[in-house]
# Entry
Amino acid sequence: MHIMFVASEVAPYSKTGGLADVCGALPKELAKLGCKTSIVTPLYKCARDYFQHSTDRLNTTFETLSIPIGSEVKRAGVQTAKIKTSGEDVDVYFIEHEDYFGRDGIYNYQGVDYSDNCERFAFFSRAAFELIRSLRLEVDVLHANDWQTGLVPVYLDALYRSTSRVGASGFLEPAPRPRVNFGDSSNLFDRIQSVITIHNLRHQGRFWRDAMELTGLDWSLFTYDKMEFYGQLNLLKAGVVFSDAITTVSPQYAKEIQTEAYGERLQGVLQSRANDLYGILNGIDVDEWDPEKDSYLPANFNSKNFKVGKAKCKESLQREANLPVDPDVPLLGFVSRLDPQKGLDLVADLVPTLVEEQNIQLVALGSGDRTLAERFNLLKRRYPRNVAVFNGFSVELSHRIEAGIDIFLMPSRFEPCGLNQMYSLRYGSLPIVRDVGGLHDTVVNASDENIANGTANGFLFYWSEAEDMKKAVDWALHCYRDRKKDWYNMMRAAMSSDLSWTNSARQYKALYEKLVARRSDERF
Ligand code: ADP
# Structure
């Protein structure tokens, strides 16, 4: 079974967010489980830089793809690399087009989106098909990711398969002709099933309707039940409508996005695909985030011997953050993008009471929203002995914070999966999180019952309000100070959670197998 990922970001070649981590990690895990796996991704400037500074090799091919875009046909080069795994290597195909991808940013420059993003990613999505045709690759599943590759399922169904299934379902109108005429290549496409993963529904790739012209697709697809969305072209919606299966990055988020509260106005479309919508929890890189081996830490520890190592990490973090060194004071922290999604304004609301009434310490690491950053800086000036703020992005410091704190704060308004609460669990820093999305699926609340049966590993609250969060923080601080034995048991449960990719990769594999079996039930 050959799974081909089509992704606009893949770590370590390019990264702006969690999408890159998933597309870097999941193909490797699938390869270990015996799948043939490949990745198609743009050859950005940052990817070229990566190869210049790495021992990994980028191989030139003389392949040239002809990609229709609007009324033109543009050429793309193909370069390749291999990712070694304990199974078969993962083949990486880089799509090379200097005008589109040789820029300083991936999607934007200095915060301003490139005005031709629709064209760039329509070109990239179409290139995947021309690559398959040109190299005659036998692919079973094309796995698209987020809006940037939302056109992949559409191209497959409306242009490259010999018969449209969306049209054939009886629910929607038949897709238009003419299709691409491939002669004997069509069976390369008829065998393919498509999957799209939604990593964050907020980002949908919405463009002016005129962008339809660039896609090369017929205007008859520009309807409310296919690609149109309140007068605009919506690439994620198009991907959801046309793919054979849809996944998102946690089971709870898969439910939430079908509701008005979290559906970002696509809840109706997602409800109509409910039978093909799956929530599969992301894993984390358990080698990079391993408190036993982490070289960024002043001391290492594991779930059995954590007391000494963790105390050293706490002491060293208090020094680094310029806070009074005190092993008994509860040290809270977060590492996050400063974005309204993350709900950190609730933390800022609570800091004065928590400092004045409970004498807590807080270490914050974040970058993004300037107003919020300024709020935390003001709190630091007001409470220099209790609050430390690092503005910016630092991987090393993020490891030291995860290891040194007692309690991690993540009061997200919505959270498709979330990584930081998982890092916290692994480092024995009990998370206080809002009961939403992937946080719901990974954090088990410290109720009396869960504490008693040994499953509790953190604290949940329900409403996006400081008062509700405060109840959870108060309960956590009580457990930290007065129920030490329970606290250590929760740390042990947290540190023993299985957060690896292996489990998720098995679920993806099962889904692909189901899709491929469905293919043989049909007419292939
Ligand atoms: P999101 O992808 O929505 O930002 P996640 O929790 O899924 O949130 O992943 C965020 C990732 O980015 C984590 O790996 C986190 O450690 C990292 N991160 C976010 N902000 C910072 C920062 N200021 N410094 C270092 N790492 C950060």
The radius of gyration is 24 Å. Confidence is low (pLDDT under 50) at residues 168-177. The first helix runs from residue 18 to 32.
